[in-house]
Amino acid sequence: xxxxxxxxxxxxxYFTEIAITAQLSGRLFEKVMPDGMTMAQxxxxxxxxRVGNGQTPVEIARAMQVTKGTxxxxxxxxxxxxxxxTRPDARDGRSKRIEISSAGREAVRAAIAAVxxxxxxxxxxxxxxxxxxxxxxxxxxxxLLDERRN
Length: 150
What we know:
Blueprint: H1 3-32, H2 39-51, H3 57-64, H4 68-80, E1 84-88, E2 96-100, H5 102-125, H6 128-148
Antiparallel strand pairs: 1-2
Helix pairs in contact: 2-5, 3-4
């Protein structure tokens, strides 16, 4: 095999491992999250708590890499649970802005607390220095992929 083919094969293996790890960790985390919260719901609430309020459903859908229809459904579930509030856009009356509520912020804290023992278990099983050393590679790949998604 050529060096170029080996490189491609290595990246495919790498992404396969990341995908399987994401799926397994997501299922593990969903089992312990409070009130049956899904990873999709947690992801949206965590996104809003990190980047701030006032995003439109389309902006959040783009960030989460899902369709507007899927986002509308998930936002409806979060709103019924009292985790977010939908407000009219002051600049564009046809659009809405999403804000995380205090209950939503508490739900993020509770979900992180519920997942913490699972993460602590994993931290005891691996060399954290190795994980730390791999972060720049994963971050670079994420940034490259993010730049190419549009």
